[in-house]
Amino acid sequence: MANIAIYTGTTSFFPGDTPFGKYDYDHTFQADIENTTKWCASRLGYPIVDIELQDSQFFSCFEEAVSEYSSQVNRFNIRENLLNLRGESTGSDFTHKNIIPNQGNIIKISKQYGTEAGSGGDIDWKQGYITTSSGSNGWNQVYDLDIQTTFSQSVAGTDIEVKRIFHEGTPAMARRHDPRLGTNGALNGFGWAGSLAGTSYLALPLYDDLLRIQQIEFSDTIRRSMHSFELVNNKLRLHPIPQSAYKIYFQYIETADRSTGLLEDKVSDFSNVGYQDMTYKSINSPGKQWIRSYTLALVKVVLGAVRSKFASIPIPGSEVSLDGDTLRSEGAVEQEALITSLREDLEQSSKRNTMERENEITTFQSEMLNKNPLNIYVG
After folding, report:
1. What is this structure's pTM?
2. Which range marks the domain in which residue 151 is found?
3. pLDDT tens digits for 91-148?
4. Residue 275, Ramachandran bin (φ over 0: left; ψ between -120 and 50: alpha; else beta)
5. Is there a domain that residue 64 lies in?
């Protein structure tokens, strides 16, 4: 051990002296790595005792401490922001960025629902039609919409999904005064049974029209044989069976337009969110203090490994026991404690805990205000 160069009390750092060189060209990092090396050596007893380490080992521990701090913070940020970052480019760098909630998943689900419901969405509904056959041949009259259709645009080789068939009876609004529905009887109670349809709109509020239209549609469902259809595997049966040739329109989507969720170069999970190593000069004072403490814990483990090579060394007339195992144990315990403390601090700053504290403050302020007497105005 005496022939190996050990820490001399002076150190000079140059870019390239760390194993990975992540922060070597950051001037703040260059200054702090030298100061932290001196501080760690002093905490370990230098210059009273020799420190059997070289500068490069101190530098490696310092770089590892910065990387560990960056990793812990980035992992926390990924958990906090993953919901808002899904679908973003994997080439984006979100390090040190303030991620604003964008309700991304809610909007995506709403668009998907809108597409299926025919209200909004992000897939175009296209139009096609079939021409019915004249004459009646019973339920054997089946129209294959994949084959017997005139489309608004070519769909050759494309799977389609029919969303709506325009095969309906006369609109309820056109039959508002249908005598078979009893609506005139209801009007008679108001003395309006003989009024013309055009003038009745002036006499009745709009909601009355809506209520009567709903009555007609509900009555049609129960009492009348309405136009209906059966659609199975894009094969259409019509009721009543067409007695002449006419066009029936329908709307459809191309199934290839529906998102499969297989998006390349987009954030999908924890593993491909664009968080990089933090910029060292952007780390605040508490963060740098954590890094110094974690560096010391790492140095203890390394120095303990060196000293554990021999349990003791002989000296004239006796031998000296080395503290390698003790240093390694202390270093491991300190590392675990520091990481636990950092994770707790990060968790306290999470969106959930922040909102809970804001709610507590608001509730407390409201209770305090309720205890203040109200002003009394006279005159």
Report:
1. 0.65
2. 107-257
3. 899 998 888 877 767 777 787 777 777 777 778 888 888 888 876 555 557 888 877 6
4. beta
5. no
